[in-house]
Amino acid sequence: MTDFIFRIPAPSVEISGRTERFAVRRIFCVGRNYAEHAREFGNDERDPPFFFTKPADAMVPSGAALAYPSLTQDLHHEAELVVAIGTGGRDIAAKDAESHIFGFACGNDLTRRDLQAVAKSQRRPWDMSKAFDESAVIGPIVPGQSIAPEAAIRCHVDGQLRQNAKIGDMTWPIADVIAALSTHVTLAPGDLIMTGTPAGVGPVARGQSCRVEIDGLPDAEFRYTV
């Protein structure tokens, strides 16, 4: 057996009501999956879903106190519903997608918006604007629960409401997102899918707190230290 020269911590998320934890394998994110959010950035909401990733160790639990990220003066919140995959598969049909879901959580896809703008203008990848350290705040996962289309998704910064929409406002519903993503990669247990953010994204400054709420799920919140 090979002995490794160092140990890499295994990222994991709390499971609501259980002592076991959900081991995180990969984090996939869906871009522009709410029409109003697509329009606020000048994009066509009819475009098919596209995906980017965050490293698993970018995940931080709800309640964390975080250092403000480097190299940015415009850090944005993006409230998202997170789907936790419990059963893997490839080329999953939308009608079968529900059977692959372990549970759901609240999430926040933190974005260095100024770095993203530069990357877009230079036609370069978004990685350093999306996949930086502590860029995915994930609340406890609630297993075995469906999310109704009328469930509200909200984001507050220092108690001020910034984002307020319904899960049913997604351009591509959860089942379609899973089906589309599974044509690109073989999904596996431990994968998380952040399913896109509604309109109203905006900055979170040093010293501010941010909370994502989705009806029926525990909140995902954090604050930036000064």
Automatic annotation (TrEMBL):
Q: Which GO terms describe its molecular function?
A: acetylpyruvate hydrolase activity; metal ion binding
Stored InterPro entries: Fumarylacetoacetase-like_C, Fumarylacetoacetase_C_sf
Is Hydrolase a UniProt keyword of this protein?
yes
Query: In the UniProt record, does the keyword Metal-binding occur?
Result: yes
Domain (Fumarylacetoacetase-like C-terminal): give its ranges.
Answer: 27-221
Q: Which Pfam families match?
A: FAA_hydrolase
- Name the UniProt key words of this record, in alphabetical order: Hydrolase, Metal-binding
Would you tell me the protein name for this molecule? Fumarylacetoacetate hydrolase family protein
Species of origin reads Planktomarina temperata RCA23
